[in-house]
Amino acid sequence: xxxxxxxxxxxxxxxxxxxxxxxxxxxxxxxxxxxxxxxxxxxxxxxxxxxxxxxxxxxxxxxxxxxxxxxxxxxxxxxxxxxxxxxxxxxxxxxxxxxxxxxxxxxxxxxxxxxxxxxxxxxxxxxxxxxxxxxxxxxxxxxxxxxxxxxxxxxxxxxxxxxxxxxxxxxxxxxxxxxxxxxxxxxxxxxxxxxxxxxxxxxxxxxxxxxxxxxxxxxxxxxxxxxxxxxxxxxxxxxxxxxxxxxxxxxxxxxxxxxxxxxxxxxxxxxxxxxxxxxxxxxxxxxxxxxxxxxxxxxxxxxxxxxxxxxxxxxxxxxxxxxxxxxxxxxxxxxxxxxxxxxxxxxxxxxxxxxxxxxxxxxxxxxxxxxxxxxxxxxxxxxxxxxxxxxxxxxxxxxxxxxxxxxxxxxxxxxxxxxxxxxxxxxxxxxxxxxxxxxxxxxxxxxxxxxxxxxxxxxxxxxxxxxxxxxxxxxxxxxxxxxx
Length: 484
Description:
By secondary structure, the protein is α+β, with helices and mostly antiparallel strands. The chain has 11 helices and 25 strands. The chain has helices at residues 2-8, 24-36, 54-62, 88-102, 194-238, 243-256, 262-268, 282-292, 315-324, 337-346, 356-369; strands at 12-17, 40-45, 77-79, 113-122, 126-135, 138-139, 143-146, 149-157, 163-164, 166-167, 172-178, 187-191, 272-279, 302-310, 327-331, 349-353, 374-393, 396-411, 415-420, 423-428, 430-435, 438-439, 442-444, 448-453, 465-474. The chain starts with a helix and ends in a 10-residue tail after the last strand.
């Protein structure tokens, strides 16, 4: 989104907080400005705070080749406060002065050119785009094409939601009259007529379809080669066998590949998370989908995007989620009471968020909940073997270890392991735990005891360690790191 903004604008106002200084997003914005070769005006915000240090911000920016006028550079720095409004006019003047120096001009005549900044659905208005006009003058009734959508302009409004009749270059404008949603970042072009607009859109859709078909064919060809290779290897494997032996092996393989029962299927699908994404505007959905593209933990749980779109959550979304056993994530959208009741009745989760980071954290938690629990060992006590001997029980000789508890306590009902030279050579339970001649269930630190294991073949050696532990199931966490 920052990259798109840098490509569209002629002057970038870089806002840095005077108390926080240069952050990761500041560095990213500077890089986008350099890539787009767009000049910067520095606005140091929150200067009304007691802990504000504008000079520190200027020094930190030197490391990123952002040199302010105070340090011999050509970048204007204005100390402002968005809260109190201090120096906001000075920031506007600095921006105008830079624009005059650069002699920024645009042609208000000829066909309209512009860029879609955002698109969303407005109740009563339908698809709406906010755009920046870069050339020509946009008027009511103009025919526009953007991406794979076209519009006959029915209504225009400015940043204050006031209806306007025309929009000149550099003006931000809301446009109503789109037949479909253009994507944020799409180029807007004016065409002479509706038939021409339909022709352009049809051609663009056709080209996209052809490109997709080409990719599908490449994928099919790749799969065909894989199957051919597997078939060749299978023939080589069975080629020397008698037909009876070959038939028996094939029967065993077929038996292993029998379809799962419904209950087994339900259990097997737990490592797949189908999701539906709904956002308030196209840019928000794009940002979420871009984060999802970084998902690299399919070996743990497969993340499956069933549908994404702009607008409030609808009954169709709930039905789709029910069909795929998925979860609906909404960003800055609403789900009415009727929709929520329908979702609850159908067992569909609807998760609404106002902050993208929170939505992604919620998604990580949902992915983690699909993973099998991890069994962790928690040590309760440790003892060292000081002596070994055996006792006779009936006709059997039972090996016994004389131990001293060095740490924690030994509890007879828990699990134990025998460690020799750092290697675990046995895990299991005790059949007896004695202090002197008394059977006891707990031995504490510093006390001596005798114990015998549930496996008679294990031999004790002086210097071995006995560890008493318990196993606890801990919820697993997905290894996916979205990068923030």
